[in-house]
Amino acid sequence: MKRDTRGSRGARAAPVGPTQRQLRAGELVRHALADIFREGILHDEMLASASVTVTEVRLSPDLRHATCFVESLGGANSSEVVAALNRHAKFLRGRLGREIELKFTPDLRFIHDESFEAARKMNALFNRPEVKRDLSAALEDESEPLSSATPDGDDQ
Q1: Is residue 15 a part of any domain in this protein?
Q2: H or E, element range at 136
Q3: The predicted structure's pLDDT at residue 12
Q4: b vs e for 15-29, b when ≥16 Cβ sit within 10 Å of the residue's Cβ?
Q5: Domain range enclosing 59
């Protein structure tokens, strides 16, 4: 007799986000890459003049592919820095294999981290006068004491 795997009893929901294993391995790779960048062993004039921060590493479920989000100090020449890092990805993978203890050393792909730019835009938005006015009005409404009336409208 075949089992019915379509029912709710045997079926499991697909994971929504990364697993704990992916998160732990991503942090391990991020720290190892930061140490490698700190050593300054990459002989590339674009990378020699830039200070690179690895903000996040996301690993595939099988831990064989890593997407590394990087930001150069000040955000200057970020596209050139990312291109240089992608050129040296195989060398960095080799160094990474000696630094971390994973069954497989993941393939590295570097992407510019856009979250700092998004945060800057959000701060600029919150600093606009009309937004500040609306936020202060909302805070004043929340701080007003509630009346002693019940939801029915009867006073106590």
Answers
A1: no
A2: helix 129-143
A3: 65
A4: eeeeeeebeebbebb
A5: 20-113
Let me know if residue 149 belongs to a domain: no
97 found inside a domain: yes
Q: Kindly report, residue by residue over 17-63, the tens digit of the pLDDT.
A: 888 999 999 999 999 999 998 888 888 888 877 888 899 999 999 99
Whether the predicted pLDDT of 1 surpasses 80:
no
Alpha carbons within 13 angstroms on the beta-carbon side of residue 33 total 31
- Which residues are CB-neighbours of 21 under 8 A, at least 6 positions away? 63
Q: CA 126 to CA 76: how far, in whole Å?
A: 25
CATH code for the domain of 53? 3.30.300.20
